[in-house]
Amino acid sequence: MMVAASLVAAAAMSGCATRQDVGTPTGSAMVPSENALILPPPGGPAVLNVVERRRTNAIEQDIYLYTSAATPGQNVLQAKFFGPMDAKFDQQKSSGYAGIQDNRMMAEARRALPGVSLALNPYFLQNNYGPFGYAFGRGRANDACIFAWQQIRQQENHRSPLKGYGTIQIKLRYCVIGANEAELLAPVYGYTITGTFGDPAWNPYGAPPPLEAGLGRTGSPIYAREQAPTESVPVAVTRRQPQPVMRREVRSVPSTQTKQLVVTPTAASSIPVPQPDGTMTLPQPDGRAQTVPTVIVPVPTCDAQQAGTACP
Question: DSSP string covering 105-130, please?
């Protein structure tokens, strides 16, 4: 009797010792959206939630984005930061490293966008963090989809275990209804990397670029965009249309020819009366005729190009 009671008590104590709370053995945890290691550009797409996994050698995040497309699947921005992890994560799994290559990424893109006919972009492109690649295709209905990838890592001759080490890998699966290729690339050009490690030797970006030679020196003015001479906006000039010229009958007159204008008195009217010989009769107060010499200016030579029409 006492032996049986002892066995029951031992079993009860053993059960209490091995009992544990429910947890997430995969190491995944939901974190606030503001803790995302990479943020999309202002204007979207919006961040819905962030799932984080901490490994022995890296931090992984799946940043889920707003999706309204008809193509099956969720828009997601995946980030993987390789660097020095805290010792408490030594019991976690290690995150496998695989270099970013186009053929490997195309296989992953087809898994992320099944049924979408994807074409690899053949051109060299880069954003603020360096070169990137992507594949573009059309999904269901009027959807446009891309799968983009980027690896940020210093060149091998510039990194070492003590300085300049670390790698960031980024992948984006993104579908939008009624969008074009340029609109889908906006998040790739505009996202901001906010995550980092505390170790000052962790630096996958490399050394900052040197300053321009003329910066801070005399004789090298820097203009505001609206004041820079090279940035002046050209003024559109409307081409003037030729105006039609009325034809008129003109008799050639030698440049040295002069005519005498004979003025004779008239009492009938003070209005000048033209004469058949071309003179003009004007009233005079003393009744005497007055001859006034006048010079006839010859008509200039007709220029058909300036007149805008044929010469008479």
Answer: HHHHHHHHSTT-EEEE--S-EEETTE
> Does 260 reside within a domain?
no
List the beta strands (DSSP E) in 206-297: 258-263, 273-274, 280-281, 290-295
Structural tokens at position 58 = 């890296």
The string of DSSP letters for 136-167 reads EEE-STTEEEEEEEEEEE--GGG-BTTBSB-E
Q: pTM higher than 0.85, yes or no?
A: no
> pLDDT digit string (tens) for 124-149?
999 999 999 999 999 998 999 999 99
How many domains does the structure of the chain reveal? 1
Contact criterion met (CB below 8 Å) for 132 and 152: no
Specify if 141 maps to a domain. yes
How wide is the angle at C-alpha 10 spanned by C-alphas 5 and 12, nearest 5°? 95
